[in-house]
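<instruction>
Derive structure tokens from the sequence
<data>
Labelled lines for chain and fold:
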Amino acid sequence: MDDEQMMHEADDEKLINDAFQRLLDNYMASRHRKKVDIITKAFNFAKQAHKGVRRLSGEPYIMHPIAVAQIACEEVGLGSTSICAALLHDVVEDTDYTTEDISNIFGPKVAQIVDGLTKISGGIFGEQASAQAENFKKLLLTMSDDIRVILIKICDRLHNMRTLQSQPANKQYKIAGETLYIYAPLANRLGLYKIKSELENLSFHYEHPEEYASIKAKLADTEASRHELFDQFTAPIEESLKQMGIKYEIKERVKTPYSIWNKMQNKHVTFDEIYDILAVRIIFTPEKREEEVNECFNIYVAISKIYKSHPDRLRDWLNHPKANGYQALHVTLMSKQGRWIEVQIRSDRMDEIAEQGFAAHWKYKEGEDVEYTEDENELNDWLRTIKEILDDPQPDAMDFLDAIKLNLFASEIFVFTPKGEIKTMPTGCTALDFAFSIHTFLGSHCIGAKVNHKLVPLSHKLQSGDQVEILTSNSQHVQPSWINFVSTAKAKAKIQAILRKNSRELQKKGEEMLDEFLKKNNIADQINAADQLTEFHESRNREDFFIGLAEKTILLGEKDIDELQGKNTKNGGWRKLVPFLGRNKQKKEPEQQELFVVPEKFNRKKPIYISDENIRQYKFKHCCHPIPGDDVLGFIDGKHQIEIHKRSCPVAAKLKASFGNRILDAKWDMHKKLYFDATIRLQGIDRVGMLLDLSRIISKQMNVNIHKLTIDSEDGVFDGTIELRVHDREDVKEIINQLKGVDGLQDVTQIM
């Protein structure tokens, strides 16, 4: 071994030991029972197991497990069992050690968590389409055994996101995409607000680097004026709190770049039009723990004497905490500068729960190493919902991911039963969702509901505070149309299961009816007969044909016997056309040939470049209408052709989470030769000559072709859209900037 290599190893050793020492220091400063020996043992074991292995960034592999353990200890507040499991989380997957080995050395609890973590990331899925959804199912299954599995998995994902720069771009989009789609909402549901915000921001940073940089720069530019506003606004509040003798701290909360960008996208507004970038947080320490809720309201009363509060924007999560345990009182006040500012009032305990979530609920009794208790009702309800979804597996992995997102990550409303019990439901749920949430029988026989004593249909959307009574009838049965107006995963899963069961029963009845008909007419080959008659009756497939028989929408008779015996001349004539139709299809084939087909040995790490010459080789999807200048990615579809999507497209979000290994980095190499459609929305005060001014700027000044113009004017206010032919996103930005100067035009935004 030469000197240079020895120095290199000594540097690595120092790096590793320093990182581990930092972890131990953090652990020693926590409120856990000090089990340093087992943590040191886990560290030495993992260090030996990963010896000689490096990450893509070049650092020793063991630095990753130490970092995950550090996050688990410092940022989530977990104890020794979790820290050991975090240190060992890649050992079973990446080395020859087994779960049994871990169990023998570190005990069954650590082994169970490591096994759960291995199940999530292990398994060779290769090209299997639903790899991510399969992982997610495993994640949720293991989570039902021990919530620490999911908490450590979130720590693991956070460290991967923090070190994402060493990955190729296509991998960055995949990992960032599934982080936004799965892990950030999961962290939110577990109340890990800080981690959720960081995961969102890191994903945003990699998916839209320019927009991220632009918002960061604008936040830096407006920092001084924000501080000034904060100081002026909080000075009288501080005075009032001091007079009340409250021990408090006032913090400035600034909206994250991701949430600012999200609001800009959803509300079609610019950075300058977002008013809630600044919020104020009052965190107090109550003298008596049982007085903390009353104290929140006392503070609210005191500050609403200083500033006028917004009547519709008081949010009380004190008496009904969110499902992730979040408790606070939110009030919006009008500042002296004419700006609405949200004030969040919470105790130090509530603040800890808001930052650390469920981990903070387990604020372990001194001297005990109890990391969590079983009486987390909300959490257990949540896990029960997951188990119900998993018990009735969805045929499609994408549906499964959607069902989970719909149910677990939706924001909540509170609904009352006729007896006054509170049920937590997702926003946007209907009376039918509520019925299924109580009992499957109630849901499947539901004919309507009384909401606040008024009769409403099944599809009626519930609001927070509604009192709901479900009305049933034994003659009512589940209808296929119901699937269109339920939004909870439980109701969807139950309806689909019942429909599938009904459909199987009808098919069986239809098969028996066909069998009887064939026997009566001495026709032996049932399978061929079923196929022939399915085609003859123009049913989509055999199942539909059998259901048609059972429901008597298809009646069998003489024509069917003629068809089966080949006597149906009309149909015979139709059959002669088939080869001709086939030839006709072949003529269209060369057009299909133009699309680029991905070869087997294609380098997926390199970006594809979309140019004026090759643009027709790619598929541009209607879900998001990407045009040059948009942040885009490529997706290899089932035919090995490449679809182009905006990185922010909702369809792309699902693709990144479910088919991550088929994502490609895509870049534009266009030279303003081709034209693309873009739509701009205009709103403003109508006046004479408005239309003339708009068209003059677009056609004369900008020399852009207006494809279609639609404007509605009512009571002096107009709302309209202009469809243009442009070269790229730059053209659109330039046009919007020019139009903003038109007198009377209030709002100019781009749609797609």
About this structure: The chain has a mean pLDDT of 81. The chain is about 50% helix and 15% strand. The CA atoms of residues 632 and 646 lie 4 Å apart. Residues 11-166 form a domain with the Hypothetical protein af1432 fold (CATH 1.10.3210.10).
